[in-house]
Specification:
The chain has 389 residues and is α/β, with parallel strands linked by helices. The chain folds into two domains: 23-44 and 287-388, Aspartate Aminotransferase, domain 1, CATH 3.90.1150; 48-285, Aspartate Aminotransferase, domain 2. The protein contains 13 helices and 15 strands. A seven-stranded mixed sheet has the order 2-10-9-8-7-3-4, with helices on both faces. It is globular.
Amino acid sequence: MKYNFNQVIDRKNTNSLKYDFAVERGKPVDILPLWVADMDFQAPSEVLDAMHKSISHGIFGYTEVKSDYFDVIYHWFSTHFDWETEENWLIKTPGVVFAIALAIKALTKEGEGILIQQPVYYPFAETIHSNNRKLVVNSLVYKDGCYRIDFEDFEQKIISENVKLFLLCNPHNPVGRVWSKEELLELGNICIKHGVVVVSDEIHCDFTYPGYKHIVFASINEEFAQNSILCTAPSKTFNLAGLQISNIFIKNETIRQKIKTEIVKSGYSQLNTLGLVACKAAYEYGEPWLNELKSYLVDNLIFVREFLAEKLPEIKLIEPQGTYLIWLDCSALNLTKKEMEHLFVHQANLWVDPGIIFGKEGENFERINIACPRIVLEQALTQLEKAIR
């Protein structure tokens, strides 16, 4: 492999949220973190080279991008997902959650219902509550080690709760589902039927495991394209979260103008200079790095699967179809929420995401980030095994 994903890079004392804020968040200072969704790998060297060139120039004034920026993004999505977008659909924001907040403000009123499918990425619920909208939950159904959608409940909740907006997570964080075309069609048709706009968070779209293919929601048909806001970013794919850049695509001109109006209201204009540089370089030159990374993540997943089967059969891996986040069913441990936290934090000395933060449906689950060198993953699981034994 050209890229060394086995290299352990010391991230301490870099103001890393993942590594440097344990004490501030009530954790032991030396705890091993596998929680927040950033990777312990350096960004592609080609991206770093582009950033170094920009830094060497030494001037960081207000920055915009021209058509060549869009061109590389267009090529990425047309090549990888058979989806062709247009430049005027693109709105750049500092993050996907920022874009979701804009959509909530632009397309709903206080008190109106917004539907999510828990257990799901917890900022969804936080953003709904903080904007004084009504949180409506269509709980995913967990059965036989896999998650499915209750479509009857989905439609009934839309009708009974006056839902105006649906936040779709695909690939789904944390349960790892990559929704099929048939599932997306059923969701999308119900939303069209009842006038519900879809905000599709596809930030993990580049991480699917062998045998699974991500389908861009807006690519399915013209109706879906006109009724959706597509949220993408290079941040997960190339480990660029701190550079605050996301690319939001909105074909419907009316919806797009409403979002632009909210951006003006927020006082936000040009994005981070280095974020724009890094994004363009990543999509233009980062594919070889990503291909090797995905192969490494497959091996990490195999390692976790085999370790759990051999040494920790009480913990059940929910087989992920996408993302580098794995969802562990710990219900066989028969621990209370407080006991589970004590086990992971104080006995195993591991900082992971407790499933309950993703909704009550996540109780007895834990989310672990496997985008780290194998030796770190092995250390973490060994610590957990010793704590349980």
